[in-house]
Amino acid sequence: MVDVTPKDPTHRRAIARGRVFMTTETTSLIARGALAKGDVLAVARVAGIQAAKRTPDLIPLCHPLLVGSVLVNFHIGDTYIEVEAQVETIDRTGVEMEALTACSVACLTVYDMCKSADRSMEIGEIALWEKTGGRSGTYRRGTATGLASGTAGAAAPEAPAPPRNGSFGSGDVVDDIDQLLGADYPE
After folding, report:
1. What is the DSSP secondary structure assignment for residue 21, as one 8-state letter?
2. For the whole model, what pTM was predicted?
3. Residue 80: which H helix or E strand, with range?
């Protein structure tokens, strides 16, 4: 893990968004509360909140934080449910992973609650939209990058450089992960 002990605790916030794409019939069922499993958005909200609090249990090198606030909200479109997760803390490191995890699990919960009505659903466009606090300051996503949606305009980020101490591709996942973790990446 990265050593964050020298950092001063500051107020930090992160917002992540994602969408569950579905048929118009499924969004109508959600809006009417007519699905067999119950209130989809209420259950997805609780799932997202729980996920934010459990993020360090899921992401191996993620620091455990005292999460101060988690908000999970929804927007119902004609063919999608948009999930927005906002997480806040006063701590030494940011809450981007908590917000992304809350958003992802809320999307997965919407899928789970609706799969009996619509197996064609797709989850996508999960991204960090805003981050405040800390040494790196504020980040706000301007528009979609086009990486997931195929939208032209923004260049894709460069792929990470291969490790200097060997090549990947042996077919043995454990060896490849060990190589990756021990790789010497240029700063």
Report:
1. E
2. 0.77
3. strand 80-91
The amino acid that residue 7 corresponds to is K
Task: Give the C-alpha separation, 184 to 165, whole Å.
Answer: 7
List the catalytic residues. Answer: 112
Domains belonging to the chain, first-starting first, are: 10-156 (3.30.70.640), 160-187 (no CATH)
Angle between helices 96-114 and 40-53 (to 10 degrees): 150
Cβ atoms within 10 A of the Cβ of 67, count?
A: 18
Say which residue the tokens 């579905």 belong to.
Answer: 22
Structure tokens at 83: 């999930």
Distance CA 119, CA 109 (A): 14
Contact (CB, 8 A) for 152 and 43: no
Per-position pLDDT tens, the chain of length 187 = 899 999 999 999 999 999 999 999 999 999 999 999 999 999 999 999 999 999 999 999 999 999 999 999 999 999 999 999 999 999 999 999 999 999 999 999 999 999 999 999 999 999 999 999 988 899 999 876 655 554 433 433 443 433 333 433 444 444 444 444 454 444 3
